[in-house]
Amino acid sequence: MHSRLMTVRPIDVRAVQVTRKAAAPELTGVGLLTLYMGAFLSIGDFFIVNVALPTIGADLHASAALLELVVAGYGIAYALLLVLGGRLGDAFGRRRLFIAGIVAFTVTSLACGLAPDAATLVVARVLQGASAAMMVPQVLSTIQAATSVRTRGRAIAMYGAVGGVGSLAGQLAGGLLVAANLAGTGWRPIFLVNVPIGVIALVLALRTVPPTRSHDPARVDVPGTVLLGLAVLLLMVPLTTGRTFGWPVWSIAMLVAFPVAAVAFVLLERRQERSGRLPLVPPSLMRVASMRRGLLVSVPFFVGFGGFMFCFAVTLQTDLHMTALQAGLTLAPLGIAYLFTSLSSAWLVDRFGRVVLSIGGAGMAVGFTVLAVSAYADWSHLTPLALAPGMVIIGASQGVVMSPIFRVVLSDVPADRAGAGSGVLITTQQTALAVGVGIIGGVFLALSAIDAGRTAFAVVLGVDVAVGLVVAVGSHWLPNPSSRPARVLAES
Known about the structure:
Elements: H1 2-7, H2 13-22, H3 29-48, H4 53-60, H5 64-92, H6 94-113, H7 118-135, H8 137-146, H9 149-180, H10 189-192, H11 194-208, H12 222-241, H13 249-274, H14 289-319, H15 324-330, H16 332-352, H17 355-377, H18 384-410, H19 418-447, H20 454-474
């Protein structure tokens, strides 16, 4: 077994011990808060434009295709470069990449807020997504490398809470800022608000985030980076823009080519590792049971989450004729419940283990069922109050699922491969969110012409009920997400 693992350059515990001895002092509470600010900014900006798109379109006279690219451009660049961002952090220093990412994100946010036309806004959003990809992988990898076993589980659980709250707060803040129309600026404050936050995060990062890096940094895997980038593009471009352009031949061709590029990437990475080189995504990571099984459960969860958030925002504004502010406030019960349970999830998991995830998945199924009953009871006169019970149950249930999923996936990834591990996890998350928007959102929009969106919304809720049940059942096969030393599980 030892000779086999040496051949593929596995993740070994001795390397972890060397890295920990050389690591900077443990993250302080303020340092963790600073890292969370970066994560909050990135995920919040992914969702903040949802409720502002009608206003952006009217102000900039943008076509539906350009508005789609305002959302898709950010997501594609973000997912495309996440793994590379994690690898660069391992090689050149995670603190350095985090700070560079904050600076770039702040500048590109300013460019978004000042964009004179839709085309400029799309370009700025692409660059903003690339900046987020430089910044976000350093959050989890720094937590992995600069926290003790005792605190790491809770720190990662808190990261999951920040991600979920950021996605919900993004849409709520978007509605509030658009409705406020500060000094007649309309939608622009949804991007400009990032500038002062980014400056504060930069000052704190310079003072509180310790420098960490891999003890044995490898050269960038150029062939692997190109193939992974190609695979992500082939999947995300048609999923995020194909519907807008009426599913032309090129979009179908890209989807057909995606599995070919994905298989080619996997084969290349295996060959790289067997030859003694360190690939962009070490296949040995997938032999870590916590990562392999955790990703299998996380994919349907994030697909359902992304699809629901998109379809719900469209339903509220288009079919139920709510304002941007009303749409944002409708999400408030979900966000409050999510925040409460996600902050409690670390304690719950430490005490009860993975059964917490199973209960959360079952609770999601119940919550979406309650939401469907409420919607159908009085569709033409739905109010935020009528939807609140289902939203509370959904938020509370998602809060005890999302945070522990992050904790499970990364629980056995050692500090020396923290950048690669966090890059794989966040890329999977972002790709799944985009798949949810593309597939579930596409079906929703195709059906929305029937019965003024009522049937389409019911289909989306039915899919999310199924997702909750999949999470509830799949959680039984996860390792218990408790705080423990990183180790390699030699499962094949």
